[in-house]
Design a protein that fits this description.
- One of its GO terms (molecular function) is rRNA (uridine-N3-)-methyltransferase activity.
- InterPro entries: BMT5-like, Fdx_antiC-bd_sf.
- This is 25S rRNA (uridine-N(3))-methyltransferase BMT5-like domain-containing protein.
- It holds the Pfam family BMT5-like.
- By secondary structure, the chain is an alpha/beta fold.
- The protein folds into two domains: 257 residues, Rossmann fold (3-Layer(aba) Sandwich), CATH 3.40.50.150; 89 residues, Ferrodoxin-fold anticodon-binding domain (Alpha-Beta Plaits).
- It has twelve helices and ten strands.
- A seven-stranded mixed beta sheet has the order 3-2-1-4-5-7-6.
- Helix 8 links the parallel strand 4 and strand 5.
- Helix 3 runs parallel beside helix 5.
- It is elongated, with a radius of gyration of 24 Å.
Length: 376
């Protein structure tokens, strides 16, 4: 039989579980004394069977502090109203009763893309150390195929909601995701689009989870196979949106762990010096074409000739100052514009960042900045 303790140990919270479950406090940056118990928010938990499965081994706390071992404050949520939930999931009522018996808050109608406005204020006030969302799925539309763009939008909105401010002021400092917190999102095999996925698909056919997270300043810290069988042994049954009966294939699923980007800004004094940067696992590689004006009309023969090797060296340093690494730079075009008479040279660039949160939008902004900076 699968080891149930192995399932909850995945949360890296140093949970009070079976004795054979090794604490991973150090990995999660939670070693030493804490002023409060770790807080876990579970989003979109359908029939609440995932939250119930955690109860089988977790030592829960209502906030009174730590007694023996490590207590955890759990909040379980679902997207549906209570009425719709009970009508859609036969097991929901018994799961809710088990959660209530342990003092676990159960919240209905919580939108993962709008946590601040749909989760009760008294529950959200302290933020969360872990935000967990298993198998997110955009609600299917009647007589319409579920478009991959909608799934990406759900992921993008969830990450944005996780880092959103919970203060009622425009520049509030507190966020749903507490300082040092992590977002744990599990997707079916091949959906994430990372280089470490259990099934590699064309990137265009994936949910592009790193790009969606990067738009909110989050980087991929870790990637784990989701321990489905241990959780199933504890009562968890992924069943799709509103228990449609389509028990999707959840084997070989992957859990993606995201944290806020954290790095030491570039300076001449820090080059080559070890820092406390949070490295990005499987950083996205971007390829962009940029056309530079290397000589303007009337300047021919009066300016220093454009040197490709010097440009590559300067570009490498320029990107390094932004914590971005240039992996290739090749010429793919060279022409004089028929109207402006300016001499253009096209370069094909490949770059990535080992520490910064990257997205398509940020890559485009970097490329445009290169064009402006290096064009004559």
């Amino acid at each position: 039989m699968s080891d149930p303790a192995g399932a909850v140990s995945l949360l890296n919270l140093g949970l009070d579980v079976a004795s054979d479950c090794v604490s991973a406090l150090g990995d999660a940056g939670m070693s030493g004394e804490r002023e409060r118990v770790p807080r876990v928010l579970v989003l979109g938990d359908g029939d609440f069977s995932f939250s119930v499965s955690m109860l089988s081994t977790l030592s829960l706390s209502k906030g009174e502090g730590m007694s023996t071992g490590m207590a955890v404050s759990l909040t379980a949520t679902c997207y549906d109203s209570e009425e719709v939930l009970l009508a859609s999931y036969p097991e929901a009522a018994s799961n809710i009763a088990r959660l209530a018996a342990k003092g676990v808050p159960v919240c209905y109608g919580v939108d993962a893309t709008d946590i601040v406005n749909t989760l009760p204020e008294d529950i959200i006030s302290s933020g969360f150390d872990r935000v967990v969302f298993n198998f997110p799925q955009f609600p299917p539309r009647p007589k319409a195929r579920n478009k991959i763009q909608l799934h990406r939008s759900l992921l993008r909105g969830t990450f944005a909601a996780a880092v959103a401010s919970i203060d009622r002021t425009e520049n509030g400092g507190r966020a749903v995701l507490a300082e040092g917190g992590e977002v744990w999102m599990t997707l079916a095999r091949g959906q994430g689009g990372t280089a470490g996925d259990s099934e590699i698909r064309r990137y265009e056919d994936t949910w592009q989870i790193q790009d969606m997270a990067g738009q909110s300043g989050l980087v991929l810290k870790a990637l784990y196979p989701f321990p489905l069988e241990p959780f199933r042994a504890l009562g968890y049954h992924p069943c799709g949106y509103q228990n449609t009966g389509q028990r999707f294939l959840s084997g070989d699923s992957m859990t993606h762990v995201f944290v806020r980007e954290s790095y030491t800004p570039y300076s001449a004094d820090t080059v080559g010096v070890a820092s406390a940067d949070t490295p990005c696992l499987h950083p996205l590689l971007f390829q962009r074409d940029v056309s530079l004006v290397i000589e303007r009309e009337g300047a021919r023969g009066t300016s220093t000739p454009f040197n490709n090797d010097a440009f590559r060296a300067d570009l490498t340093l320029y990107l390094q100052r932004q914590m971005v690494e240039l992996t290739s730079c090749t010429v793919f075009d060279d022409f004089v514009h028929p109207k402006t008479k300016c001499h253009h040279r096209g370069f094909r660039l490949s770059f990535h960042s080992p520490v910064r949160a990257m997205s398509r939008e940020r890559a485009n902004a970097i490329t445009e900045a290169i064009r402006k900076h290096f064009s004559r």
